[in-house]
Amino acid sequence: MSDFHNAAKNGLTTQQFEAVLRQVGAERYHNLHPFHHQMTQGALTKGQMQAWALNRYCYQSVIPRKDAMILARAEDPAFRAEWRKRIEDHDGADGWNGGIARWLKLATGLGLPAEDVIGERLALPATRFAVGAYLSFCTNRTLLEAVGSSLTELFSPVIIAERVPAMLAKYDYVTEDILAYFKPRPDQASRDSDFALAYVLAHADSPERQQSVIDALVFKCDILWAMLDALMHAYGEAGHIPPGAFRPEERG
Question: Which pTM does this prediction carry?
């Protein structure tokens, strides 16, 4: 695995810079995580699938909030016009007909009560800490770094293409209707990542700025990886479920 810490120390051409960003995803995106592999192999129990959906809701629900933080700091109206599409995608026109609502449909389709999912009180502490760290990063770091952290969307069509067919084929309780969240996401992610990539390529105009974007993308990959680490630790063979967190055997 590459060390990306000093990848831009001598400055990179635009092509080299983009290649490094794509290499970050190739080496560190969470489609490489063992939990994802177990999911696509059909090896997860229904309780583990429920735990994944419940915890991932915490991440889904924070996306429009972090995007609102980015919007508030952007001075360019054209940037804001493009970026706010992300909030509309997740919140929908009325707050409950977008991506968050479709993820809730996935979670309840797996048998979870809606109030447990929305309340997030049964989520793992590590999940909440990871999601909070992401929101804090996008709130407090530079606009360039915040945009750079979103570049994991470059790789999300890959994980969706692996995940959805496998879930439909290997879990008899999973239907296309339950997985409605994923249907628009490849096109949305491609649109958003094209814009974000063009932005960072144009604005990371020094070795220091290039490195800040690379580090931001590594950080975001680490967030997504840590969330799956937490799921494996709690719901894998070790079974170290922290107090107060979701327990599949108690929910059926």
Answer: 0.96
One pLDDT digit (tens) per residue for the chain, 252 residues: 788 989 889 999 999 999 999 999 999 999 999 999 999 999 999 999 999 999 999 999 999 999 999 999 999 999 999 999 999 999 998 988 999 999 999 999 999 999 999 999 999 999 999 999 999 999 999 999 999 999 999 999 999 999 999 999 999 999 999 999 999 999 999 999 999 999 999 999 999 999 999 999 999 999 999 999 999 999 998 889 999 999 997 554
CA distances from 165 to 41, 43, 55, 138 (A): 11, 14, 22, 32
Contacts 24+ apart (CB under 8 A), 131-138: 131/58, 131/59, 131/62, 131/223, 131/227, 133/223, 134/59, 134/62, 134/66, 134/220, 134/223, 135/62, 135/65, 135/66, 135/69, 137/216, 137/219, 138/66, 138/67, 138/69, 138/70
